[in-house]
Write a structure and sequence with these properties.
mainly alpha, 184 residues
Length: 184
């Protein structure tokens, strides 16, 4: 995280909320398909992720109180670099695109979607009162404008990505389910 604790806490706030959402959605899907044990496990993990999110979110709230200029600049910097999940480093020894394929399945099943990513961004913009910040430097105001306008720009991209995904649906084997073909 480039030795910047602001970036670290912003990243972890976002990442913990994302994993709360994805585990919660997985729990709901598992329950719907009669997998009660899996639903319970994923629900427990989602609850744990929510507690983590709460802690990190409160730290960032405090950073906004004591250093709004530095915090909004870090928020914009983090969002320019995108929030990538730790799973991006998954490798099964076979598939060089494992995470991208996994993410495509998660998107299709609505476990974790581009919409969720944008919803999380907008949640934090509102939660941290980014639009209401005043007395920012020129850099801080530019960062504020960037972060506050990013959700709308990403929503337009999301619509195009959804259309493209529907056109390009295919299947791919996943090693951890014994090579079973899964629609991406």
């Amino acid at each position: 995280m480039e030795n910047n604790p602001y970036l670290l806490y912003i990243y972890t706030s976002f990442q913990e909320r994302a994993t709360f959402i994805s585990h919660g959605n997985t729990a709901r899907l598992a329950k719907h398909h009669g997998e009660k044990s899996l639903a319970q496990i994923c629900g427990t993990i989602a609850s744990d992720e929510k507690r983590h999110e709460t802690a990190y979110t409160k730290i960032v709230e405090k950073l906004f109180e004591i250093d709004p200029d530095g915090t909004v600049s870090a928020f914009a910097d983090r969002m320019r670099k995108k929030i990538t999940m730790p799973g991006v480093f998954m490798y099964d020894g076979n598939d060089g695109n494992l995470f991208q394929n996994y993410a495509a399945v998660a998107q299709r099943l609505t476990v974790y979607t581009v919409k969720d990513y944008v919803d999380i961004l907008e949640y934090f913009v509102e939660r941290w009162n980014v639009e209401k910040l005043t007395e920012l430097s020129g850099e801080g105001r530019r960062a504020q404008d960037y972060v506050c306008g990013l959700g709308q720009r990403l929503r337009k991209m999301e619509e195009r990505a959804q259309e493209k995904a529907m056109e390009a649906a295919s299947t791919i084997p996943f090693s951890w389910i014994f090579g079973r073909e899964v629609k991406i």
